């Protein structure tokens, strides 16, 4: 459609130019006097004429006094005939310079042919474009079963290489091998080694699986066929399998190359376990992928990369040797990785000198690569909205909180009483977190409403942790209920402000018992088999593998844990009432306390 518009515009301008030319031509003709034939004859008789140029049916006459005139003669009648008809004496013509200009040149074309040809041309163009668009629609219908894979050629612009992927060192090491397979397959084949067919990238969302796959293609400099698992599945049965066949056919033609199936869990789910209509189609598609991967002969240098964040739901047949036998795990980034990722994304952003990427990395535990890239973007947007030319560290810290908790809602009107209650609630969280030995240090306390929260206390770990001890969880519970306890101790009753704290606490307590085996009475086992089902959307379904009696015990244990936490929190709040009042006063005055200001009141942790 865009093309059509462009072509149309070009035609239109050409048309305008020609029209302008015509009108100009017409004007230039009219500038000179038009006289009748009779007058010309008279002038010739009186020997006033010095030259005549004959141009088709036009006679351009120049008089002796240097004036010009134009006369139209009858078409088809020659000039000499005309002179004969008027029986002009020969001697009158001797002194006249008569020239005959050929009218078959450009002028003739423009005047006689173009006016007929032009509409024809336009009509032809119109028919051509109409045919073309109809054909396009036809082709689309016929190509339904073909793969929609996007192919990235060898030397496309915006090529991604390993340099653009920060962190994930082990995964990069493994994939360097794949690059070598693609570049020098001989080296491996001569030693009788079998080149791996499939490599499965595993990692949480946003850890850079898609990015890394593209980097492999960029490094190896081979064609790259990209297709998402969901693109195989359509409304119609059989389309997925046909697309798989087509994709692999194309790939084999352009070997060595990479076929990348993103989000493979969309088709690669365990077979025979689905509910709902689409699973037959999925199974066929998966079967076809398996068949195609088996069908490569030893020397076909096509490597299939696939990515998923749900390895647990994949069909075991996908994972056996000869298919996706290589599994590369992309870890969530640790603090050093986060700094490196920030560095990659800070390249084209003007950061102020005071921006320390390390500090940002410290504040963002649990952020994925995608989160970090988004974070810098948010920071840039915040800075731009203040018409700054560079991004300051405050913009980025503000963005961290915006991403973590939600945007600040300064305009939300709260009454003085609500503000007071929120101040006590948050001060309670902060103090309990501060005085317990195993909790993360408090980074910020605020009573400015953010997202859904009325206020918030930001705790951040000093280092990345992969394991957590029971004592940490118990203290975490105490911090969660601290807001509730403080409200109760000070005002004698609680508000709805503690709702989400309590829900979180209850969920955590249940997890300690059913998932982590941390209950004293129920012992080291898990309770409940969690299973994801696809039925009318996503649903986590828990299958109970314990009796009613155990269920009762779990409920009791949850209460024990919460009671313990309440007791601990209440002790700390009651023993530090003076400090609590000081923190509340500071909060009511400043609304937000940074780590340093908070520690000035409560002392070092
Ligand atoms: P996934 O496929 O694992 O869900 P993507 O590869 O699509 O994640 O990553 C999304 C974006 O996050 C990337 O385009 C990139 O900008 C950023 N990103 C993620 N991980 C990294 C990383 N390790 N290094 C640099 N950028 C990353
Ligand atoms: Mg992805
Ligand atoms: Zn709270």
What features would you highlight for this structure?
single chain; 605 residues; alpha/beta; Signal recognition particle alu RNA binding heterodimer, srp9/1; Rossmann fold; Helicase, Ruva Protein, domain 3; 4 domains; 5-stranded mixed beta sheet; 16 strands; 13% strand; elongated; binds adenosine-5'-diphosphate; binds magnesium ion; binds zinc ion
- Give the overall average pLDDT: 82
**Helical fraction:** 40-55%
Please compute the radius of gyration using only Cα atoms.
42 Å
Oligomer: single chain
Binding site for Zn(2+): 425, 429, 501
Function: Acts as a processive, ATP-dependent zinc metallopeptidase for both cytoplasmic and membrane proteins. Plays a role in the quality control of integral membrane proteins.
GO cellular component, one term: plasma membrane
GO biological process, one term: protein catabolic process
